[in-house]
């Protein structure tokens, strides 16, 4: 693919339509990476303040055939926001207002660069709940969440970001703008372009506003910490919990190394947790009265499977301390070693077998893994650590191991990526999970929206 | 659009690949209509028994450029299953097995012609819940539900069919077959073709199998019947309920005529209900202990708004009697007069205004309306009755009134069709709800999947 150059003329044109246009080394560097650790500096960084400005930028990019990579909070784990062919990095960061919260309709209209946690806290003040909670919720943007169909622990009961996206105002790479749907919880008018855009990783259109669904906030929650002396017992317990008829808000898994990494990283947090090979954290939510009887049912059911005492956290402070530990695991592992995340997902029944195979592959490749994630959804983040390998060895081993892990997921009824997207990191593996005929359709859909292939090119599809 | 003819040669070829091929008048008539009352006999009816047979049928249709219209239970209200250009009517009815229920993973793999209620009852035996419950659930098929993104009362709390569709085995109009995703509750691998197909009204691919998500079945439910002396009060109460922090399983609205029609239709059912201008039925679900305190909260909140006593139904027999009444309203109205359904939807806040406008339009056009539906979702079925108008008058008035109703929905933040699809009945109104640039994209997506325009042609898009 041949792209145009960001020359002086292009920068001049950009400056005519956007106030903030940066070509200095420092800014370009600041927007060259995300949580993957890759480094691709863009030629120019623009920070538009309106849809109109984005339209103008797209028209310039289109005229000169320059790639545009939209970027949210830069917390992605598959490289969705990396401008791999340089060009224009379009940061949405200035579009960061919540525009309207309608408590009667249960809707929020927001700009894309609102931080997920900020949105959650604002609506919670009004008794409303926006459930999707990626670990990066303190810094990731709603726009990025929509583009990646982000999830998090509470997607188990409440669904992924997709379930909350009702309507999107977008700018297409051909310079059109429209709202994709309506501000309603249901919509069967024509094809559902809103849902087609959720999870499209910023490759089809740029989100300039979103209408999200809100629900009533659960009254209370209770967090159970269940220790196990093997990964197998922990993952088998997930299936057992599901047969009680109880619908937890979240079922998280972590192995000892994951928790230890988090504890080391967050030394200021003092929690006394059992030293177990593996743990499940089960959150129950709803009316206070109902939480302890459910907890008891789960405790009784698993009393012979657990290794030591089951802990209960009920106060907000206790729960928040635990969730903070859970959320920092990714950063904590990064503190130990650079890593790449295999965002594995299989039907819940096959979790024990998936983790057995992952730990086998760990031995085969001699690459340490730290595993944790959303066990209720069968979605385990397998962090593969570089350790002290040199770059060349690491690259070869890693890619082979990732391929093998993906094959295992697919064999077990799962797929390549549960909630982090395909992006750059996993694009070579797309054909391991998706039949060729389907990839052809996906590519044609890309062409419908972006005939010049200027919007976030080089993602999702293998070269 | 010029299509090929279903001549003797085509019928011969079809007979070579499918056992059941019908060209007799009676069978063609039996598959010419759906719940819209339109009549478009196909040239030939085929009833394949496997994906392989469907592939062969599609290849024949493709070779001769003959339209294929897939058909499920034939309960559609927008004409999705009508073979408006004749050709091949492909009834999925022989593909009616539930293939696997995985209680650990919370999944069911099913063929498309399983009746929704049958699937719900089978999984309920195992403590699992498949929430989408269109009024036609006793005869509609899962495949049709997926194609229309059907909903029903419980979509309010639990989401529409879309929220439960994880993976689809499909045959495309170009004669390809694949599974669109994985048997997992989350999937961010490439574009989500599964979600792109849900609600595409049988125009993009033929569903041959589906993997659906199941959740834990709520322990219990309680149904509240709230009478009001005006439509306005009832619809305003919906918003009030939403501000209690309670998340009902369903909030249904019906005006007096809707309930009276249902009572007259189901004479054998004896229920004593207040004679109120409008009603809300609020279902609460969850643990038994929690239901009555929630009900009390709602009752107290609305004590001054209701007109007479609030009724509670808790026994299964009482609840089922009420839901039966609710579900037959559509059939009951049809018993009074042919009607066309405007599947209106607006943000909940605007329901009072929407119904005010509908009742104004009733006077303007002199066409009686009977209104009922899923008030929690802002989705009201406005049944417009033909009464004793002649066909010509009816047609003109109806189309103008439907246009006006759609304009009102769009003005109020809503859209053309909440849960019944666009199909044939509403395709002329698509441009009232969807910008032209978006329709262009939708048509290009159609072309990606179906370059010959042979799969369910003449639907969704205006001529």
Offer a quick outline of the entry:
The structure is a homodimer of 463-residue chains. With 463 residues, the first copy, chain A, is an alpha+beta fold.
Layout of secondary structure:
The structure is a homodimer of 463-residue chains.
Chain A: H1 8-17, E1 21-22, H2 25-30, E2 44-46, H3 51-64, E3 68-71, E4 88-91, E5 98-102, E6 107-110, H4 116-124, E7 128-129, H5 142-148, H6 155-158, E8 165-171, E9 177-179, H7 193-197, E10 206-213, E11 215-216, E12 220-228, H8 231-242, E13 250-255, H9 256-265, E14 278-286, H10 288-302, E15 311-313, H11 316-336, E16 339-345, H12 351-365, E17 369-374, E18 379-385, H13 391-411, H14 430-433, H15 436-449
Parallel strand pairs in A: 2-4, 3-4
Antiparallel strand pairs in A: 1-2, 5-6, 6-10, 7-11, 8-9, 8-10, 12-14, 12-15, 13-14, 13-17, 16-18, 17-18
**Rg over alpha carbons of chain A:** 22 Å
Shape of chain A: globular
Approximately how much helix is present in the residues of chain A? 25-40%
Q: Any idea of the CATH topology of the largest domain in chain A?
A: Uridine Diphospho-n-acetylenolpyruvylglucosamine Reductase, domain 3
Query: How are strands sequenced across the largest beta sheet of chain A?
Result: 15-12-14-13-17-18-16
**Biggest interface: chains and residue counts?**
A-B, 95 and 94 residues
Assembly category: homodimer
CATH architecture of the largest domain in chain A: 2-Layer Sandwich
**Which secondary-structure class do the elements of chain A indicate?**
alpha+beta
Summarize model confidence as the mean pLDDT of chain A: 97
Total strands of chain A: the figure is 18
Quote the beta fraction of chain A: 15-25%
Tally of helical segments of chain A: 15
CATH class of the largest domain in chain A: Alpha Beta
Largest sheet of chain A: 7 strands, antiparallel
Supply the number of structural domains of chain A. Answer: 4
CA(first)-CA(last) distance of chain A: 10 Å
Low-confidence stretches of chain A: none
């Amino acid at each position: 693919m041949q792209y145009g150059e960001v020359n002086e003329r292009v920068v001049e044109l950009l400056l005519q339509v956007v106030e903030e246009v940066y070509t200095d080394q420092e800014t370009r560097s600041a927007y060259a990476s995300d949580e993957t650790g890759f480094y691709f500096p863009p030629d120019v960084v623009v920070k538009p303040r309106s849809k109109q400005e984005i339209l103008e930028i797209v028209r310039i990019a289109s005229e000169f055939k320059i790639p545009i990579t939209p970027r949210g909070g830069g917390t992605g784990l598959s490289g969705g926001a990396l401008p791999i062919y340089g060009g224009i990095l379009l940061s949405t960061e200035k579009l960061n207002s919540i525009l309207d919260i309608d408590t009667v309709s249960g809707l929020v209209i927001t700009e894309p660069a609102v931080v997920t946690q900020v949105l959650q806290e604002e609506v919670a003040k009004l008794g409303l709940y926006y459930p999707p909670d990626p670990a990066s919720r303190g810094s990731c943007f709603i726009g990025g969440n929509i583009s990646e169909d982000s999830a998090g622990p509470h997607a188990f009961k409440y669904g992924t970001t997709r379930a909350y996206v009702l309507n999107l105002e977008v700018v297409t790479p051909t310079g059109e703008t429209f709202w994709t749907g309506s501000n309603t919880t249901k919509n069967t008018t024509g094809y559902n372009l809103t849902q087609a855009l959720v999870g499209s990783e910023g490759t089809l259109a740029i989100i300039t506003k979103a209408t999200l669904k809100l629900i009533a906030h659960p009254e209370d929650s209770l967090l159970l910490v269940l220790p196990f002396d093997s990964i197998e017992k922990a993952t088998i317990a997930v299936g057992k919990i599901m047969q009680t008829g109880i619908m937890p808000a979240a079922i998280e898994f972590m192995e000892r190394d994951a928790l230890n990494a988090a504890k080391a990283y967050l030394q200021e947090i003092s929690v006394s947790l059992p030293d177990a090979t593996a743990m499940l954290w089960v959150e129950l939510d709803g009316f206070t009265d109902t939480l302890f009887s459910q907890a008891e049912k789960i405790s009784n059911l698993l009393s012979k499977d657990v290794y030591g005492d089951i802990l209960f956290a009920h106060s907000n402070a206790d729960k928040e301390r635990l969730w903070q530990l859970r959320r920092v695991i990714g950063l904590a592992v990064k503190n130990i070693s650079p890593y790449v995340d295999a965002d594995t997902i299989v039907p819940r029944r096959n979790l024990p077998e998936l983790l057995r195979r992952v730990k086998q592959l760990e031995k085969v490749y001699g690459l340490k893994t730290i595993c944790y994630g959303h066990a209720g959804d069968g979605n385990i983040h397998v962090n593969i650590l570089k350790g002290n390998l040199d770059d060349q060895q690491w690259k070869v081993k890693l890619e082979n191991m990732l391929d093998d892990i993906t094959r295992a997921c697919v064999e077990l009824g799962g797929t390549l990526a549960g909630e982090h997207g395909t992006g750059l990191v996993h694009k070579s593996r797309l054909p391991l999970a998706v039949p060729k005929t389907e990839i052809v359709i996906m590519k044609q859909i890309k062409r419908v929206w972006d005939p010049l292939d200027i919007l976030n090119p080089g993602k999702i599809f293998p070269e």
